[in-house]
Specification:
Blueprint: E1 7-16, E2 19-29, E3 34-38, H1 45-53, E4 60-65, E5 68-69, H2 75-80, E6 83-86, H3 98-105, H4 109-113, H5 115-125, H6 127-131, H7 142-155, E7 160-164, H8 172-189, E8 192-197, H9 200-206, E9 209-214, E10 217-223, H10 224-229, H11 231-237
Parallel strand pairs: 3-8, 3-9, 6-7, 7-8
Antiparallel strand pairs: 1-2, 1-4, 4-5, 9-10
Helix pairs in contact: 3-7
The structure holds adenosine-5'-triphosphate.
Adenosine-5'-triphosphate (ATP) binds near residues 16 and 47.
Keywords: Amino-acid transport, ATP-binding, Nucleotide-binding, Transport
Protein name: Branched-chain amino acid ABC transporter, ATP binding protein
InterPro entries: AAA+_ATPase, ABC_transporter-like_ATP-bd, ABC_transporter-like_CS, BCAA_Transport_ATP-bd_LivF, P-loop_NTPase
């Protein structure tokens, strides 16, 4: 493993008002990895991603990006730095076309400069989005909307792509495809991926390493193959 992580979350405490959602959460992501962040409903996975994105501020602890402390950096600057987030619930604009959704996602200077190239890339990965480029996003199927949400993040030319429950609400076959997409994005675009999923079994198949959260804390971490064999994981998440 390389010496310096791409991303290091160091012991963050995060609150919603007086409610503490995260307790000393620490994790690392190295360049080129797919890391799964797992756990049940309300464990704190989304909160962790929002804090990495800069949409929530930790009360204690820090976020280190490529060796630099970015805890105080606003969210839009983090996108410029190469951190993109596919939000839970997708966050697309239903009344804009597919193309317009992609166009407005190119918000940073770098993304604007490379927009045509990025668009070609995204259309190659998701030919269906090219076919539907003039269609209103709200009329796409659930799976297509999820592809569009991922495509919007890719338009920002991320170094780290964070995906929040991409399989949510999709039929099993599509859910599987969207989780496996993580491998393809790493291979074809070289992005590093932090994947939040409730589908523990599938996530551990595509991820190199994983962290498991429970009630705002990391309770287990390790290589995916080890986690998949861990009796606690088997009992709690794999129904074994
Ligand atoms: P899910 O899979 O349900 O999204 P999660 O692991 O992503 O779960 P979070 O959404 O991070 O969990 O929630 C962590 C805790 O923070 C939960 O107890 C949740 O109820 C609480 N929480 C989340 N968002 C808010 C909010 N806006 N205001 C108050 N509490 C919140």
């Amino acid at each position: 493993m390389m010496a310096e992580p791409l991303l290091e979350v160091k012991s963050i405490d995060v609150y919603y008002g007086e409610f503490q959602a995260l307790f000393g959460v620490s994790l690392r992501v190295y360049k080129g990895e797919i890391v799964a962040l797992l756990g049940g409903n309300g464990a704190g996975k989304t909160t962790t991603l929002l804090t990495i994105s800069g949409l929530l501020k930790p009360r204690n602890g820090s976020i280190i990006w490529q060796g630099r402390d970015i805890t105080g950096l606003p969210a839009f600057k983090r996108v410029e730095e190469g951190i993109s987030h596919v939000p839970e619930g997708r966050g697309i604009f239903p009344r804009l076309t597919v193309y317009e959704n992609l166009r407005v996602a190119a918000s940073t200077r770098r993304a604007k400069e490379h927009f045509q190239d990025s668009l070609e890339q995204v259309y190659t990965i998701f030919p269906i989005l090219k076919a539907r480029r003039s269609q209103l996003a709200g009329t796409l199927s659930g799976g297509e909307q999820q592809m569009l949400a991922i495509a919007r993040a890719l338009i920002q030319r991320p170094i780290l792509l964070m995906m929040d429950e991409p399989s949510l609400g999709l039929a099993p076959k599509l859910a599987r495809d969207v989780i496996y997409l993580a491998s393809r994005l790493r291979e074809e675009l070289g992005v590093t991926i932090l994947l939040v999923e409730q589908n523990v079994g599938l996530s551990l198949k595509v991820a190199d390493r994983g962290y498991v959260m429970e009630t705002g804390r990391i309770v287990l971490e390790g290589a995916s193959d080890e986690l998949a064999l861990d009796p606690r994981i088997k009992a709690a998440y794999l129904g074994l």
